[in-house]
Prior knowledge:
single chain, 2 domains, nine-stranded mixed sheet, alpha/beta, 367 residues, D-Maltodextrin-Binding Protein, domain 2, globular
Amino acid sequence: MKLKKVMALTMAGAMAATTLTACGSSSSTTETTKAAETTAAAAADTTAAAAADNGSSDAETVLQVAFENSISEPVGQGWEKAQEIIKEKSGGKMAIEIYPDSQLGDKSSLIDSMLLGENVCTLADGAFYADYGVPDFGIVFGPFLFDSWDQVWKLVDSDWYKEQCGKLEEKGLKIIASNWIYGERHTLTNVPVNTVDDLKGLKIRVPSNEIQSKGFDVLGATSTGMALGDVYQALQTKTIDGAENPLATLYGRKLHEVAKYLILDGHVKNFTTWVVSADWFNSLPEEQQTWLLETAEEAGEYNNEVQQAADAEYLQKMKDEGVTVVEPSEEVLAGFKEKAQPFYEMGADFGWSDGLYDTVKKAMGAE
């Protein structure tokens, strides 16, 4: 997508220069022709550089993987690993191009592209899938739902989860992996937060979906939906008072430079999923579908190793760079969990099935 735009600009520049040559006097013809050649060469260099940056190739099938995060974060490293894996599996027939830092737009615009059948992929979660027609999926992003990662993986392996994936595919979106740890989501603010009561009235940035918005509102904060790329400036100008995300993202986006208080509340154990157009996926030969699914799964395992190793490093870096870190006691966390419970009584607001909370708790082994 990006490369096509660069190539179009290259052609436009060359054509414009050629037109000037045809219309100009004979004395300027040579100079104008040289300018056209220089413009074309420079744009060609830019195209080549862009191809090298995102891993573009001449493979017969290409998937453009785009996300709002930095390439230096574990998810970025995971997809760099995926490039190697799929090249080996497919013998070069398939390739992955990587577009970090919102280069192809935000999550919602990428998902809209998928619904048009485009060959793009992004990370998304149950909260977004709830907004795209599978309401029960949203519960996986509820505050303080999981007590351990073991409960997360048990739920992902359950029949209930498979049913939700099937419903999502009927809506046009195909999940290709659900085993990526994005991290425990913590809260970074520009004023101290030591207990759940300290969140009262604070404007906290959340991704733009209903589940995460109401999940933070119920804790006493005022949620503010916003694209990740806009958060740094919003914190800097005090348009918002804080943001929540895993440590890798908070540090990767340098948000700690403009908000100096971090509470390790772990309000969501955020496993993420990678999603593509169902129409695009189903158009692939079965062999290519298998290569892609296996690649996404194996890259997820690599991501998890990187993510777990990086968390301690990110936390120490934030401390070294002046962030005050609060590690809440079990008593304080109990206060957060108690405050969150009314969220699970709002099922009718989200269009949830009757008894969904109990169904999910049973599926993850926490009856």
